[in-house]
Backbone:
């Protein structure tokens, strides 16, 4: 079945460091891909999305490119801030579940000043 | 006001009790979902509904039931709660036909079953 695998955390960085969180997927058809972020004590918020191969999603300095050839959607940011500390989830739409989302297990990012 | 609301926000209950978690939305979306979040496991789909007359089981529906009372309301019930149902529960909505299927999440309900 459809699945998402993302790098396990926690990821600990200093402010202004470069961030990469790896995400790969297995899916039938052509899913849309998402990154959601969960700040402490809050629900999930959509961070960025991409709906077809080679699309680049971007928001708040974060970027991710839909790579069909490597079935990947890695999240990157050039210079992280303390306020980026959160849990990040990679997800895809599952044609097997009526377009519900299939999530990775989440990666905790902690940024120190 | 929040577009997707969940009540209660926190609940502690005992094994064997019946519990209902409620979700309401003002986004006018047809599709609604219930997920549970466990540490290290991400979010897993419990049930989803595409309209009032359409209810579907997700990955982990055993031990749960749902009711779609109206387009805006989708309730999750635990008929007889057990400790391994202790988790953070999220409701989400999405628009019909949107190719992105962007989902909007409520703030979550933290449920503890003793």
Residues:
């Amino acid at each position: 079945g459809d699945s998402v695998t993302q790098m396990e955390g926690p990821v600990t960085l200093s402010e202004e460091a470069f961030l990469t969180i790896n995400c790969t997927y297995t899916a039938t058809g052509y899913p849309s891909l998402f990154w959601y972020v969960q700040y402490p004590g809050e629900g999930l918020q959509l961070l960025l999305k991409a709906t077809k191969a080679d699309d680049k999603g971007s928001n708040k300095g974060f970027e991710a490119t839909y790579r069909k050839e490597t079935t990947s959607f890695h999240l990157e940011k050039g210079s992280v801030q303390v306020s980026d500390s959160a849990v990040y989830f990679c997800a895809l739409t599952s044609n097997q579940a009526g377009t519900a989302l299939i999530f990775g297990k989440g990666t905790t990012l902690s940024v120190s000043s | 006001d929040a577009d997707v609301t969940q009540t209660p926000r926190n609940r502690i209950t005992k094994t064997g009790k019946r519990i209902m978690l409620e979700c309401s939305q003002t986004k006018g979306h047809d599709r609604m979902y219930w997920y549970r979040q466990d540490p290290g496991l991400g979010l897993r789909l419990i049930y989803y509904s595409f309209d009032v007359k359409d209810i579907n089981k997700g990955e982990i529906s055993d031990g749960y039931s749902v009711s779609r009372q109206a387009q805006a309301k989708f309730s999750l019930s635990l008929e007889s709660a057990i400790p391994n149902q202790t988790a953070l529960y999220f409701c989400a909505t999405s628009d019909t036909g949107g190719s992105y299927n962007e989902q909007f999440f409520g703030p979550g309900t933290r449920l503890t079953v003793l």
